[in-house]
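From the methods appendix. Each design record in this collection lists the tokenized structure first, followed by the designed amino acid sequence. Records were kept in a plain field format so they could be parsed without special tools. The example shown here is representative of the layout used throughout.

RECORD:
FOLD TOKENS (823 positions):
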């Protein structure tokens, strides 16, 4: 016996899962639904199979090919125009010269085909329809037959008033080849709506056989999920393509499950998955191949397709996740929600029940998605944040984006141009750097490759070699990667320069160089020595040597080992080092924890200070000789004091968030403070202005801003000159109590929050350099929207801690009130 698998369906009710694949290719237990049908036919020794195709036929042909791998032989019949179910079988008439079975490639069944064949032969039927009973027949073709099984009536998708049976057509037919004579070739003909009613009226022998086996049409998302639940609960006899390692737990080969993960049966986990600590999988959950589940994630009653990544603390509740999708940390997807292939759902987003997201969409961080996302950009918008362009490696920032960014950057710069590249040396950032290099070369740019380097050295290298700018790629924590775009001054791109790159990315009007205009990159790794010499020119080495400063320092030897010891040696300092190579850079919070353990060591070693540096050489946390951590705002005040002490009438550039203590220091020392936006590029642009640089000649701010090594050098010299402990110097700095809080605010609400607060300020004193800063009789509060996250920062400073806390609390309540949804 031969078979015909009808595999031309679009599966419109299953979208977005069928946007890029025909319905028979939708996976069930990690195998295309049609593969389960092929295995069923082979079980009954049906090896000659015709396949009717119409929607995305190449997807099925490329997967199944000639059928040899599946133990059968395929012959494909493609419809140029839709022919209906019967018309598509007529299109395969040349293949059908004996009794044959027609079966849908997009339904799931384990029915006993041998019983169906025996019944068909016994009744000498022209057509035998395999039937099943369902509780709700509204979406099916209802069939009624007499006691002998002879069909007496059809009704396609009835209303409740028309329902006369709960026995419905499964779409599985045993047919004699003579039936093809009743189907007009090249015409749209449907079995249930056209052919069978016509044959019934003509008195032809049509029979119905009610199967006792399992059958489910995966026609919509609810049915698709239900089919998986039925499989896991043992309601079918279909084989599982994985070993049952515990009752109700099927796990594929090479899968890694953390001992602290919790698996609640029944669950099916595919090959080469990685399940993180504290993750909760199941019950009734199916994971595809190579799925990554982050720490503390929770999945229940959900189906996750191949190559998807689920972030830490993400939650799935009855959701379907498409192939290669990325669900980021803390995101929640509720019942019946669906994400298409390669879609990214941002951190702490909530996808409401029934919401469907089409393939390659981007859901921003903190979004509340209440309606389906069909239209819009198919890729994440390329937007600069506070520190360039950043995101999770291979999710938000990968080779494709990096190559496009390189082409965009190269296209907005006039030729000839030399641009520098460097990375922090980790494998992921090196990968991104190589992709970026390819994009720059494609635009005809000469690339100067600094190799593995820290950002402060890169900034110096741009100025020293008189380049047009550069890009530095670095990790932050385990997954985040940032691309820092630098102009010819070595400063971060201004907003205007950022917009040029964003505009080019949006338009994709890249300037592609001719083959003879592509220039090989130049490798220039030896910038460190020149940078140190440059830095030492600003420091009084003799004074430092005489003071014999002693410091305890924690740093990354792999990235700072050729710089930090050489610098301290040149200054005559004795250092006690805690040099630890790390698999990934520390976050600022991790650095703080290290610094907290530093206090006793600094005191034991009788050091003048302690320091914890990040791997990138940008950030530093100082500890005084008494073992106390110098908080961020106090460090800003200290460095401002250094500039104002070393230069008469200096002008210091500081963000609007900096403490008013600096204003008092400047007043006492005859200097001035220039308030700027909080973005690094805004601060840099200010202190690179000629007037500001001239006023800071002795100790320029651009020397140590964002440079941990230069900061340590300046602090060392200042202590050597002052000849008194760091704690005494800090005690002389005016202190105003501060408070700070983060409040979740959606991207859509940020503008409304700032507008409302500005309007409420009215005639009272308010400043809008960056965010909205409100002045009160005994303090101030600043509401600042975050450039990278869906939240606002509230900063407060006052004459005592109680007032600072009350100001923060007051504006927190105001923001929450503004963000309340309107009825």
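DESIGN:
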């Amino acid at each position: 016996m031969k078979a015909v698998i009808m595999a031309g369906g679009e599966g419109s009710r299953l979208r977005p899962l069928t946007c890029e694949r025909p319905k028979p290719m939708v996976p069930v237990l990690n195998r295309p639904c049609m593969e389960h049908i092929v295995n069923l036919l082979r079980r009954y020794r049906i090896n000659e199979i015709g396949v009717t195709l119409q929607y995305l036929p190449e997807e099925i042909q490329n997967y199944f090919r000639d059928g040899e791998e599946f133990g059968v032989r395929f012959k494909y019949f493609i419809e140029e125009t839709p022919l209906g179910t019967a018309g598509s079988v007529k299109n395969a008439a040349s293949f059908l010269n004996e009794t044959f079975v027609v079966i849908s490639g997009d339904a799931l069944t384990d029915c006993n085909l041998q019983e169906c064949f025996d019944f068909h032969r016994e009744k000498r039927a022209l057509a035998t329809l395999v039937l099943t009973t369902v509780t709700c027949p509204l979406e099916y073709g209802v069939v009624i037959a007499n006691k002998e099984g002879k069909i007496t009536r059809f009704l396609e998708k009835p209303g409740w008033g028309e329902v006369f049976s709960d026995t419905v057509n499964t779409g599985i037919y045993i047919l004699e080849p003579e039936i093809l004579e009743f189907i007009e070739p090249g015409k749209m003909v449907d079995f249930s709506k056209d052919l069978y009613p016509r044959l019934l009226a003509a008195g032809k022998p049509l029979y119905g056989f009610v199967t006792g086996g399992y059958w489910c049409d995966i026609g919509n998302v609810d049915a698709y999920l239900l089919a998986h639940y039925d499989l896991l609960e043992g309601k079918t006899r279909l084989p599982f393509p994985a070993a049952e390692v515990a009752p109700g737990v099927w796990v594929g080969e090479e899968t890694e499950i953390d001992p602290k993960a919790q698996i609640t049966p029944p669950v099916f986990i595919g090959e080469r998955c990685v399940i993180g600590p504290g993750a909760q999988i199941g019950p009734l959950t199916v994971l595809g191949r190579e799925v990554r589940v982050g720490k503390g994630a929770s999945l229940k009653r959900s189906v996750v397709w191949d190559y998807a990544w689920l972030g830490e603390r993400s939650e799935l509740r009855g959701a379907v996740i498409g192939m290669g999708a990325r669900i980021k940390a803390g995101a929640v997807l509720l019942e019946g929600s669906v994400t298409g292939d390669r879609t990214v759902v941002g951190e702490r987003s909530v996808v409401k029940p029934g919401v469907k997201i089409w393939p390659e969409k981007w859901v921003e961080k903190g979004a509340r998605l209440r309606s389906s996302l069909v239209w819009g950009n198919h890729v994440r918008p390329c937007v600069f944040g506070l520190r360039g362009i950043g995101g999770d490696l291979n999710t938000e920032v990968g080779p494709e984006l990096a190559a496009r960014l390189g082409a965009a950057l190269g296209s907005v710069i006039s030729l000839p141009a030399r641009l520098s590249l460097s990375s922090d040396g980790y494998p992921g950032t090196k990968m991104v750097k190589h992709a970026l290099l390819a994009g720059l070369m494609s635009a005809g740019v000469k690339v100067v490759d600094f190799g593995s380097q820290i950002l402060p050295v890169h900034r110096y290298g741009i100025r020293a070699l008189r380049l047009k700018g550069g890009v530095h790629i670095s990790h932050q924590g385990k997954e985040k990667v940032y691309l820092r775009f630098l102009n010819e001054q070595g400063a971060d791109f201004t907003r205007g320069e950022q917009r040029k790159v964003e505009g080019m990315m949006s338009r994709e009007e890249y300037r592609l160089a001719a083959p003879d205009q592509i220039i090989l990159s130049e490798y220039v790794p030896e910038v460190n020595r020149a940078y140190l010499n440059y830095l030492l020119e600003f420091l009084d080495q003799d004074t430092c040597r005489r003071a014999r400063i002693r410091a305890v320092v924690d740093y990354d030897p792999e990235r700072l080992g050729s710089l930090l010891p050489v610098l301290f040696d040149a200054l005559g300092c004795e250092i006690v080092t805690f040099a630890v190579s790390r698999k990934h850079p520390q976050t600022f919070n991790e650095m703080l924890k290290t610094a907290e353990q530093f206090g006793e060591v600094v005191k034991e070693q009788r050091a003048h200070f302690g320091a914890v540096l990040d791997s990138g050489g940008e950030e530093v946390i100082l500890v005084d000789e008494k073992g106390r951590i110098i908080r961020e705002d106090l460090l800003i005040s200290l460095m401002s004091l250094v500039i104002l002490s070393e230069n008469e009438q200096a002008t210091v550039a500081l963000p609007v968030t900096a403490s008013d203590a600096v204003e008092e220091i400047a007043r006492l020392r005859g200097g001035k403070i220039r308030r700027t936006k909080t973005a690094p590029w805004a601060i840099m642009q200010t202190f690179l202005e000629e007037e500001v640089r001239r006023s800071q000649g002795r100790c320029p701010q651009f020397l140590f801003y964002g440079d941990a090594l230069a900061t340590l050098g300046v602090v060392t010299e200042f202590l050597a000159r002052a000849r008194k402990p760091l704690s005494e110097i800090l005690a002389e700095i005016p202190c105003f109590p501060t408070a700070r809080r983060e409040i979740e605010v959606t991207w859509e609400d940020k503008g409304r929050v700032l507008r409302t607060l500005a309007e409420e300020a009215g005639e009272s004193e308010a400043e809008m350099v960056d965010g909205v800063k409100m002045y009160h009789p005994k303090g101030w509060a600043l509401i600042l929207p975050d450039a990278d996250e869906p939240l606002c920062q509230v900063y407060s400073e006052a004459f005592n801690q109680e007032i600072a806390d009350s100001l923060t609390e007051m504006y927190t309540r105001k923001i929450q009130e503004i963000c309340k949804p309107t009825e």
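APPENDIX NOTE: DSSP finds 25 helices and 52 strands in the chain.
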